[in-house]
Amino acid sequence: MDEQYDVIVLGTGLTECVLSGLLSVEGKKVLHMDQNDYYGGASASLNLTQLFRKFRGEEKAPEALGRDRDWNVDLIPKFMMANGELVKILTHTNVTRYLEFKQISGSFVYRDGKVSKVPSTEKEALTSPLVGLFEKRRLKKFLEFIRNYKPEAPVESPDLDLPNVPMSQVYKYFGLEEGTQDFVGHALALYLNDDYLEQPAIQTHKRIMLYTTSMARYGKSPYIYPLYGLGELPQGFARLSAIHGGTYMLDKKIDEVVYDESGKFVGVRSGDETVHAKVVIGDPSYFTNKVKKVGRVIRAICLLRHPIPNTDDVDSVQIVIPQNQVKRKHDIYVACVSASHNVCASDYFLAIVSTIAETDNPQEEIRPGLELLGEIEEQFVYVSDMQTPVEDGTKDNVFISKTYDATSHFASVCDDVKDIYKRVTGEDLVLKQRPTQEEEQEAMANA
Question: Which terms in the Gene Ontology molecular function aspect does this entry carry (predicted)?
């Protein structure tokens, strides 16, 4: 195995698999290794036996839950924005050929103890129970402005110069109440906390437009989700890498990351075998001395026999609980999918509640989310550290991904992919529609 590669990738999380696929397509010789015997790493989808083994040790799953093959339980719950960066990467690489997607049926927000549909258009703003009569008009005007805003066009007030004013100033201009600001910032723009209020408003505009254009693409909600769970995503990129010459080794022990005298990465040792490469990309679990803890995320995986109450009995939904509604510094997210997504047995629903932990009692912090679920059949709770690399990797050629945060979609994961890609290659990742397999074959036949 003493072979030379361009890149060694350690771990099969989504970030690592996307980068492996992208670099393989571009002709790099890639070796991809993982100590686990399954794809996905921290973002894997587990069957019933794996789920109980991970959280309950030797305890067997109740027979009533059905068969292993009926369950694909995500450890990291996230949905995909229909017009988001991950969809663009999937299209750019044509990984969509390996996957099937289903729309998420509802997008809801929690306010004053109730769950209501997120209004994303002027028409919905006028009928939403979230806001009073006069506030409906102000919200309608605000959403009209967001939809029609063009950076190059003159604005009617200096308060609406979005690149140069904070979002708090824009809210003030339209006279939006704090509760309305809550769901705009947290359920439309999908910010985790209120830091955005003092940042340039143009960033919030982009996020709201992503939500509304994603919503317009399919209706019902802006989110889509792969059948059989999120574990399908890294496997799709692994197949892409393999087609373009990438080599995969699962269940491969990593004994040592090898450096030269100057501290630069030169290879990876497994037993008495060593492989060499110019660059290594990996998740934080392989580089514990090169990362730092920046917080903790708590997640509760809940198995239900019913849809989440007060969500119109839909088969899938996201609910955002804005921080201010429960006197916290970070939002709580509730994601729910069902048997219609091929992730659980018939008549079951799979709900995951998550947030960034702020205290020494994180289970109490997610209680507002758990209380929305109704009766819970089984519950698995875990807390994981959020880690980020200490350095950017350019000194030692070690490029480390960030762990997954509590956000409900993949924007931060895609940012990390693009950031690492640029540091490794020196070039920006430019996403474009690649030819399909059929078009490539036709072009070769006509050559």
Answer: Rab GDP-dissociation inhibitor activity
pLDDT of residue 2: 58
Do 54 and 3 lie in one domain? The reply is yes
321: containing domain: 1-82+225-447
In terms of domains, do 277 and 246 share one? yes
Say if residue 300 is in the same domain as residue 347.
Answer: yes
The answer to whether residue 155 is domain-embedded is yes
C-alpha 255: how far from its chain's center? 30
**Strand 273-282 and strand 398-400: pairing?**
parallel
The residue ranges of DSSP E strands in 180-251, in sequence order, are 223-226, 247-249
Edge-first strand order for the sheet with 80-81 is 80-81, 223-226, 101-103
363 and 315 assigned to the same domain: yes
Per-residue burial over 17-43, b = 16 or more CB atoms within 10 Å of its CB, e = otherwise: bbbbbbbbbeebbbbbbbbeebbbbbb
Domain membership of residue 89 (yes or no) is no
In a domain, residue 292? The reply is yes
Could you give the CA distance from residue 196 to residue 273 in angstroms, rounded to a whole number? 49
Tell me, what CATH number does 327's domain have? 3.50.50.60
What region, left, alpha or beta, does residue 206 occupy, with left being phi > 0 and alpha being psi -120 to 50 degrees?
Answer: alpha
Whole-angstrom Cα distance, residue 421 to residue 301?
32
Asked if the structure places residue 94 within a domain, the reply is no
Token readout for 100 is: 């099937």
> Do 210 and 248 lie in a common domain?
no
Number of domains in the chain: 2
pLDDT along the chain (447 residues), means of 10: 84 94 94 89 90 91 92 93 92 91 94 88 82 88 94 89 96 95 92 94 96 88 94 93 92 93 95 94 95 96 96 95 94 96 95 96 96 97 96 96 88 93 94 58 55
Cα separations in angstroms, 219 against 104, 184, 438? 10, 18, 30
Q: Residue 347, by phi and psi: left (phi above 0), alpha (psi -120 to 50) or beta?
A: left
**CA distances to 133, 182, 276, 310 from 116, in Å:** 16, 13, 55, 8
